[in-house]
Amino acid sequence: MMGLLSFQQEKLIFFPEKLPVDYTFRFDQEAEEIRIPAPDGVLLHGLHFKSEESKGLVFYLHGNAGSVASWGWAHEAYTALGYDMFVLDYRGYGKSQGEISSEKQFYADAEAAFLEMAGRYSGKHVLVVGYSIGTAAAARLAALHSPTLLLLQAPYYSLSDLMQSLYPMVPGFLLRYKFETYTFVAQTKSPIAIFHGAQDEIIYPGSSEKLKAYLKPTDRVILLEGQGHNGMNENPAFRRELANVLHNLPPAKP
User: In terms of Cα–Cα distance, which of 197, 237, 189, 204 is closest to 221?
Assistant: First the structure.
């Protein structure tokens, strides 16, 4: 583990599913495949799901394993409520080119994709959603670009804090990926909703409790009883609370 942290941290943090370029996605509705150039020219890939009457866009940054082939199903929670959803595959995931090599690069890729997709929804709601490993990048986007809402699912306070909870014997200074969610949450002016499973076995629920110190009085932390780390999007309780959160959104910016 010490060796991996020193020289190959990406193998401990990211678990991509790679897809062939001719892979055919099979969802319950059609999804447009979109390729977006990263700042260095690497092509990033994502799926764009559309609702019948779009209220706006959900820009979705998924967890550390799999690809949009599995994460694309998250669209059901949002298209059912009248929102389009774009879910991005990080470098080396799915049909996205390249490999993740730094935190700065990870953030820059997410921002390039966000700016491309958000630009298509002028005058409508734009929501940023992050799940697990995607939460720091999602919070950073919200801090920089003030979307209608920042929604975090199973967030970590920081990756250093999470590593200390999972592997307390590992020196924190070895970790190159800090992913300090709390820093970006503190800088976010948009409304924030945080969902965490009470039985999360990977990112301890106290992570979200620690983030409370950086929230505004109107922001919310919602603990889902019986929910583990995975499968939150299919949880009926999550979907009910999500509908309430979206119903109470402020008007979209012109």
Answer: 197
For residue 136 the two structure tokens come to: 């720091």
Q: How does pLDDT run across 107-137, given as a tens digit for each residue?
A: 999 999 999 999 999 999 999 999 999 999 9
Residues 6+ apart with CB under 8 A from 99: 10, 91, 92
Average predicted confidence (pLDDT) for the chain: 94
The amino acid that residue 11 corresponds to is K
In angstroms, the CA 73 to CA 243 distance is: 17
End-to-end CA distance of the chain: 50
β-strand partners of 153: 131, 195
Q: What is the DSSP track for 52-103?
A: SS--EEEEEE--SEE-HHHHGGGHHHHHTTT-EEEEEEPTTSBT--S----H
Sequence-separated (6 or more) residues with CB below 8 Å from residue 121: 56, 57, 84
Report residue 150 as tokens. 């920042």
Neighbours of 71 (CB within 10 A): 25
Residue carrying structure tokens 């700016």 = 115
Give the CA angle between residues 110, 216, 165 to the nearest 5°. 65
The strands making up 220-224's β-sheet, listed across from edge to edge, are 31-37, 43-49, 84-89, 56-61, 125-131, 149-153, 192-197, 220-224
Query: Does the pLDDT of residue 231 top 70, yes or no?
Result: yes
